[in-house]
Hints:
Elements: H1 8-17, H2 26-35, H3 48-61, H4 64-114, E1 141-144, E2 154-156, H5 158-167, E3 172-176, H6 183-195, E4 206-211, H7 231-239, E5 244-249, E6 272-277, E7 291-295, H8 300-313, H9 317-326, H10 342-347, H11 351-364, H12 371-387, H13 405-422, E8 428-430, H14 431-435, H15 441-449, E9 453-455, E10 467-470, H16 473-487, H17 493-501, H18 506-516, H19 524-527
Helix pairs in contact: 2-3, 3-4, 4-6, 8-9, 8-11, 13-15, 13-16, 16-18
Amino acid sequence: MSTEYKDSWSLIMDLERKNILSEKKMMEFIEILRTNGLTFLIKSGDSVNNLSIRAINRKSKVKQHACKALLMVVVLLILGVITIHVFANKYPDHKLREDETIRNMLTAQQKQAYQKKIRTPPMLDVESNYDLSQMFTELEMYTTTKKENFKDKTKHTFQELLSFIKSREPCKVLITGNGGIGKTTLLQYISYNWATNNDTTFDGKILFLVNVRDIEVEPQSFTDVITDVNEGGKTFIEEHGREIVLLIDGLDELRFGINSKVLTIGEMEYSTVILTSRPGFIEYLYNHYDVHVKLEGFTAKNKKQYINKYFNYVGNFELGKSLITELKLDSTDTSICSGDHKNICEIISSPMLLLTTCIIWKNEKIIPKDFKRLFNEIVRNILNQFINRPDERKENAIPHGNLPTKYKNAILILGQLSYIRLQKNLLHFTKDDVCKLVLNETLVDLALSLGFVYKDSSMVQDSFMEIYRYQYKLLSEALAGFYLSNKIETFNSEECKKIRTNDYLHMVRKYTISFLGSNADKSMKCLETE
């Protein structure tokens, strides 16, 4: 039976008390070294007597307590080597068992987390809880292994991409596409299929889905971005890179610059990595990835499939057929939409905006003709859900047309805040951030309660203030564009320069032009990039 000691001195004292260790028994101790094959600790030509005599002579030259201290150090060193040597013979099996335990624990933990259905925040249709895994539809996808551009791009299916990843381990995949094009849903779908055993691409691997927007403190190691894993789990991840698959979503939302450890490919050398980003933020990464995938949204055929899946999911297949007919997606010309809705049909190549259009058609049976009208319908739907809450039934639903002033002012506040925060690529804020823009606390409370933003319980600042987030980055950018379209004529040249030169405002500029419509020419001095 082994004894545990609180420190090394207790060990020495106990050995002396039991008469196991003493100057006279030094020869026996050295024989233990030989028995265990540790002859390298004994100098060539030394005899047991010589070693013993040296120890005794040493004692005669120093004080008693100094000799004893020296002897303790020597014994500790020898015992340490013996312990390491003896344990090393058993360690491999012990390590294997420990690794297997951690492996099983991490696999079970991650599969349980990703088996949940893929759902969107209830922004547009609070009564429906959409499972996007049931509506997943192929996106138009092009790949290239060339570092420079897509001149030699090749069209591939989602399954072909997975086959390529499986055939090349470890594989580094860079996926780019515009906002709302389906990058996040694609990674969620991959993790969902792994967790539910619907796909074998990553059998024997452990998946970790990291949302870059959730990284609040600059990581010192790539394992720092993996939450809900203890130190033992992180050590396992570092030591077993080939068993790890990292899905990193939303590089364009990173706030720590390109040198952040979350992007250090050297640290993830042996792991498969799939990283998504909007274009324009990742040119410096091309040389680090095996394949670059560009998502270009839905083709006309894919749109038709998605609409059928959506309305089948909500239990009204015939209503979906009527939308397909209205959009003329059943036309023999499957390359483009045609007819009165050509403009909106190009916009709804984005899965997010097509989902929005399906919801609007289900609720209103109308199709917005352009992005400005689509945004107005999104706003109207969100506001009507707010009005229809049991504790808010104080007025009639908002009709098509102009927004009531109080709601427009509340939305403009959110748009102004979004414009300010996006300049630093920030998507979260506190109530105090809003109060700095307007002194009317009633209006602030209204803006925060309408449904455009939500409280993020997973984030708590040092001051323990509540954190709010926009439901989608695309929505945040659209709100900022709506604000600019109403205020841009009052901006001075310095503010216009900020708008033109800030890379994070690229989509905001595009949305502002859409909202301005024919009046955009008057404000192009603020919107045209240099």
